[in-house]
Amino acid sequence: MTNLDSGSGPRPGGAAQPLAIELQGLHKSFGSVEAVKGINLNVAAGEVVAFLGPNGAGKTTTIDVILGLSQPTAGQVSVFGMQPRQAISRGLVSAVMQTGGLLKDLTVEETARYTASLFAHTRPVAEVLQRAGISDIADRRVGKCSGGEQQRLRFAMALLSDPELLILDEPTTGMDVEGRRSFWGAIRHDTAEGRTVLFATHYLEEADAYADRIILLRHGLIVADGTSSEVKAMAAGRTVRATMTGADEATLRALPGADSVEVRGDTVLIHSNDSDAVARYLLTSTRARDLEIVARGLEDAFIALTSDDTDDNMTSTGASR
Amino acid sequence: MSTGSLAAPDLTTRRAPGLGGFNLTVLRLEIRRLLRNRRTVLFTMVLPVFFFLAFGLNSAYANEPDGHGNVSAFVMISLALYGAVLATTSGGAMVSIERSAGWSRQLRLTPLSPAAYIVTKMLTALVLGLSSMTAVYVVGGITGKPTMPVYLWVITALCVWIGSLIFAAYGLFMGYLLPTENVMQILSFTLVLFAFASGLFVPLNQFPKLFQQIAQYTPLYGLNQLVHAPFLGGSLHLAWVANAVIWLAIFAGGAAWRMHKDTARV
Q: How many whole angstroms separate alpha carbon A84 and alpha carbon A92?
């Protein structure tokens, strides 16, 4: 069920190109709490990557380390082959945070002009405000802007330095469906130019719709990493459950389309794209009984991959929102 | 959304800005923000003026010579200094609001260096110090009670204004250190203590010996002696300068250090 291949995903040509993000053995602890427990991750330039996981999975902690906002307890981090801080001072990386980061007493235009003045190289403020769709509220005080407008302003600020890597930390939290759609429309329009994007989300459909590659995090570790279609394939198919004594795992694994087999005492769980074939085999060639066939949605795949085995933990995952 | 073949990002053309990101656009915007906060601007002008009107104008002071003028002028310089340091401290302490808004964290995602930011904020706070100092001097001039040569009006005013920079750094440091809700209450209280310990409200020789000895090392002591020195004449003590410079370094360094560390999410 787990696909630990952190190097997958589309790679652009040019092998000499430094990786946009490279994490090696990343650990981060806060006191006795280990938020990130050893993450290895390579993101090539031009990839659009989703960090998917429930609250507390380590998404934001990892992002903070990539942005140089916190130091790893152990491990290496490099962004375009540089220290995060170097990449930031060159305007190569920018980020859209979930909340905060704005001054209420400045106007939208002043905030953008303030931010732009700090970089050596920027795009024109007016152009960026227009791209973010907030030209018409340029003179409005930030404190009087709606949540969605403030988020577009954060997006505009992140675009000012024309970054090669854009990091979005749960950028649509608290937005309604329409707000999310139009925010992602703006991002999609923007990333068509080949920018590398890493975004954290706990909205499954966002990861599915906007990422080339989905990385599932759980308890500070990567539990799955693949293209969105690979993750979808993981979630496709059905689980066949049967009671069966003396099951031979190896034989079951060889069944058509079986991608995961689990034997728990007398219970056998087989996940397969061809559940009919599995069921037919079990009923005709083995002594299996009490057969159950259950479809698993993307949502369930997410929960299965990112939550604990106990049912009560499922309700605490972000996916249940 | 995969784009297939991609042009390699040209990393070589990217550079960091000079001066750690310090620039006049930010300074102008920061001053504009500050002046939008009319309540603070008015408060830091009205309070020292009120003190001056209450304590600096009695006829005994106006008739009693002191230094190169009269006692009224001495009191005016003292209260202008009190107003200016109250103003720059308040100006600096406004970072606590930015901190709670996550703005300092946002700035850590730009090339702006903590040192450049602290310098910008200190210069911004100086505008507030200027308005407070000017208010006291203008009211002093209108009442006609303080007397000293014109050049001393100018020199002492400049000393007060520039010296208040130390407390801009103090406000910044404390603004990063203390919780937002009560930062100004704590700072107003400490300023009153510093003012007493510097001999600004009451001459130090009226306090016990031990208090006087400790007082010499407090942050407002050196500055208070320095701003009165041109008026009183007499020699300049190196200890005063050292006091002022060392406290400035501690406060500004502390502020830059805290800003560097301030990456907490809000």
A: 9
- The confidence score (pLDDT) of residue B2 equals 41
Best mutation target, A117, A190, A193, to test chain B (most B CBs within 10 A): A117
Q: Is the pLDDT of residue B78 over 90?
A: yes
Record: fold of A237-296:
Alpha-Beta Plaits (3.30.70)
Average pLDDT, chain B: 91
Q: How far apart are CA A279 and CA A293, in angstroms?
A: 8
Q: Are B72 and B147 in contact (CB under 8 A)?
A: yes
**B265/A110 touch (CB, cutoff 8 Å), yes or no:** no
Structure token digits, residue B18: 């000079």
Q: What angle do CA B196, B164, B177 make, to 5 degrees?
A: 80
CA-based angle B105:A121:B255, to the nearest 5? Answer: 30
The number of distinct structural domains making up chain B is 1
Measure the CA–CA gap between A85 and A72, rounded to whole angstroms: 13
Query: To which H or E segment does residue A197 belong?
Result: strand A196-201
pLDDT at A315 over 60: no
Residue B5 in domain: no
> Which residues on chain B place their C-beta less than 8 Å from a C-beta of chain A?
1-9, 11, 13-18, 21, 23, 25-26, 29, 32-33, 36-37, 98, 101-103, 105-112, 263, 265-266
The model's pLDDT over A220-269, given as tens digits with 9 standing for 90+, comes to 999 888 887 777 666 667 788 899 888 888 888 888 778 788 888 888 88
pTM: 0.81
Boundaries of domain holding B151: 39-261
Surface-to-core class of residue B205, CB atoms within 10 Å of its CB (0-12 exposed, 13-18 middle, 19+ buried): exposed
Residues A42-98 pLDDT 10s: 999 989 999 988 888 899 999 999 999 989 999 999 999 999 999 999 999 999 987
For domain A1-82+163-235, the CATH class is alpha beta
pLDDT tens digits, B204-236: 989 999 999 999 999 999 999 999 999 999 888
- Contact criterion met (CB < 8 Å) for A113 and B9: no
Q: Which residues of A touch B16 (CB under 8 A)?
A: 86, 89-90, 120
Query: How far apart (Å, rounded) are the C-alpha atoms in residues A315 and A44?
Result: 34
Mean pLDDT score of chain A: 83
CA A142 to chain centre: 29
- Interchain pair B16, A115: CB under 8 A: no
